[in-house]
Amino acid sequence: PGLTGADEYPQTWSEQEQLLSDKTSKMFHFKKFFDQSCIDHLVTETNTYVTAMPMMARPAWLQGRSPWPPAWSQRWEPIREKEIWRFIACLFWMALHKTQNEEELWSTHWAFKCPAAKHFMTFAQFKAMKAALHAQNED
Fold first, then answer.
1. pLDDT score of 103
2. What's the CA gap between 86 and 63, in Å, rounded?
3. What is the pLDDT of residues 95-129, one digit of tens each?
4. Which of 51, 49, 15 has its CA nearest to residue 133?
């Protein structure tokens, strides 16, 4: 199931946009509460947060062996609206496919293999987005 309960996740951005504007879709109703301004805000604040990470003090909760800033932040490319929507779609999809460990959804092991996860993003991209997602300005 994709965002709207369809049998296949749409492969092209235009197909995704069509589903998002379909008044019978679940996403159409979701967007009434999580509108374009929310997405724009997440894009802006997430990119601002990651860009500022090298100048931030190391968080107290971070274990001593972990590098700061994190390695993924050094490879970060600014996200766009499309990546936020893919991340949200991935979270919805994950809610339908519960596992002990979210990494299992991207596993290549025959017992866990779930190829649909790769349609959203790689596991490394998912982890980076999950760590970076920000909704507030740190200033």
1. 81
2. 30
3. 877 777 888 778 776 665 666 667 778 888 999 99
4. 49
Q: What is the pLDDT of residue 76?
A: 92
Angle, CA 36 vertex, CA 28 and CA 118 arms, to 5°: 70
pLDDT of residue 138: 67
Q: C-alpha angle with apex 95: 92 to 97, nearest 5 degrees?
A: 115
Of residues 69, 37, 64, the one with CA closest to residue 51: 69
Residue 1 near residue 96, CB atoms below 8 Å? yes
pLDDT < 50: residue spans in the chain: 1-10
Cβ atoms of residues 82 and 13 within 8 Å: yes
Here the tokens at position 123 are 């596991």
Check: CB of residue 8 under 8 Å from CB of residue 2. yes
* 109-122 residues labelled b (16+ CB within 10 A) or e (exposed): eeeeeeeebeebbe
Q: Which amino acid, 2? A: G
Global confidence as pTM: 0.72
